[in-house]
Every structure is written in structure tokens, then in C-alpha cells.
Amino acid sequence: MGKLKVGILISGRGSNMAALVEAAQDPAFPAEVRCVLSNRPEAGGLDFARERGIPAVAVDHKAYAAKAEFEAAVTNTLLAHGVDFVCLAGFMRIVSPVFIERWHNRLINIHPSLLPSYKGLHTHERALADGVKLTGCTVHFVRAEMDVGPIVAQAAVPVMTSDTPDSLAARVLTAEHRLYPLAVRLIAEGKARVTSETVDIAPDAVDETARLFSAR
Ligand code: GRF
After folding, report:
1. Strands (DSSP E) found in 24-73
2. Cα-to-centroid distance, 16 and ligand 1 (Å)
């Protein structure tokens, strides 16, 4: 079976993209990164990808009059690079239902909370304000509603009494960098499949996901 051909959409520093690129450098990893695309030409992550010989393309949303045209350009760029699966990694544009349908069950996102808690922005501030003792991150298939969709994998992260939003974000980000490659690997291996709007994990892969239950 060939490798999953992944395109990664970013808007900024791209540390999750970097984690995926690094994971994919292992010849045994079942996915390859065919291109990195940013809606912001100045995104630092584009240089990281270029330095590793991965096509890195800016598709500037400001250059398009309508969202539909921007998204068509994104899809065409992905297809031109042979992409058959898309990872959102800090992509700060809300994708339209048309785009989501075009990439149905071939489009995933990483979010810095244990969904369905703390959808949206400022997740760490809100978790601290609520005094939760555990937070984490989630990789999920994308659906029309924001931060909703079949959950592939999650990692839990403890909240410390001394945490600030920044210190908590840094701890969660470390977990994100482990979780996203795991999720992509499970999907590429056919061990994580959407069935009736939840993700079934193959029995032999359940232990691997459980090991991330308390990522530090
Ligand atoms: C991450 O926290 C991710 O969960 C969220 O946006 C942030 C992107 O960070 N969706 P990076 O660009 O991957 O470093």
C-alpha cells in the first residue's frame, strides 16, 4: 500500500507542521508530506518546510475577492501536489462547508483542548479560569461546525497551580507534537476509521493511544 499523501495548511509558526514533517522523515512512517500551504505569505513555517525540500506555497487569502475562490485555489494547489489528505495545523481561516465536503473524511484538525470542552479560541485562559485540573489536545475530522467532528486521538495534560496561559499552552503544545503524528499514522495505517460519526480505533492500536492519555 502506498503512503498517504498529506498536505498541511498553516498560518503561522507551524510547530505542529514541523512535528509532522519530522515524523514523516522516518522511512517507516506511512504518510509523506507533499506540500505545506499557508494563507499568510510571511508564515515562518514556510521556510522550515522549504529548508527540508518540501514544496511550500503561499495562497494569500487577501488576494481573492471571495472565500470560494481562495478555497478553490487551496484545493487546486493541494491537488497539483498530489495531496489526498489534508491536515490543518494552526490554519487560522474558517473553512467553508464546500471545502469540508470536498475533503470529506480526508481533512483533520488539531485543537488545544479536550473536545468537546473549550471549542474556539483562548482555550488555556478559559481552562485556567474554570480551575480544571486536566486539559489537553484533540485531533478530529473536520465538520461544518467549528471544533466538532469525529475524534481520532486525544492527549491529557495536567494543569499546575502555578500555570499561566503561556506555560499551560507550552505544555499542551508538547503533547500536540506527539499526538498529531500518531493520529496521522493511525489513519494512514487504516487503524482509525470514521464509522457513524465516531472514529473506531483498531484493537491493536488502542494501547498506543492510551499511552498518550497522560502526556507530559
Ligand atoms: C496549536 O496550538 C493548535 O492546536 C492550534 O493552533 C496552534 C498552532 O500552533 N490549532 P503551530 O502553528 O502548530 O505552532
Report:
1. 31-38, 56-58
2. 6
